[in-house]
Write a structure and sequence with these properties.
With 156 residues, this protein is α+β, with helices and mostly antiparallel strands. The protein is 61% helix and 15% strand.
Length: 156
């Protein structure tokens, strides 16, 4: 494996550690459903998500295992892409690393707690975006970076 690809795994470890530490801190300082304001548009609190994005399939017990399995399969696929990325594809590899860190962060939650721990609650007055966490952020930014990479490639 090339040196630039090894660096991506350090990024994965760092992002995964930040995700898990933030969830640990929240779970130590809040009880489920408790939240407090950080800014006029942001609360932090402890929220449990049994499902996928926006609590999709949260009412089904089997969903935990489905989403855990999908995260692990996606992680192996992402690992392969990170390992094979050339130096010219370092931004693409970084995007894959972000998605991998997010997938693993939420998979750890599902495996250990049976739910995903969310804590970021953005809102405008009484309208709240569904709560999310750093792992979700890594996934979204990673996907956005991949879309940007594809758009840049198509412009050339």
């Amino acid at each position: 494996m090339q040196k630039h690809n090894k660096v991506m795994f350090y990024w994965v470890a760092l992002m995964l550690a930040l995700d898990q530490l933030s969830k640990w801190w929240i779970s130590q300082h809040f009880f489920p459903g408790m939240y407090g304001p950080v800014a006029p548009f942001l609360n932090i609190g402890l929220f449990y998500n049994n499902g996928a994005a926006f609590s999709l399939l949260a009412e089904h017990r089997w969903a935990r295992w489905l989403f855990l399995s999908l995260a692990l399969l996606a992680s192996f696929w992402l690992l392969g892409h990170i390992r094979q990325a050339s130096k010219q594809q370092r931004w693409q590899a970084f995007a894959y690393a972000m998605i991998l860190a997010g997938a693993l962060g939420n998979a750890i939650d599902r495996l250990v707690w049976g739910v995903v721990i969310d804590f970021l609650d953005f809102h405008i007055h009484s309208w709240h975006w569904p709560a999310f966490n750093l792992a979700d952020t890594w996934i979204c930014v990673g996907v956005g970076l991949l879309i940007w990479q594809v758009a840049m490639k198509n412009d050339q």
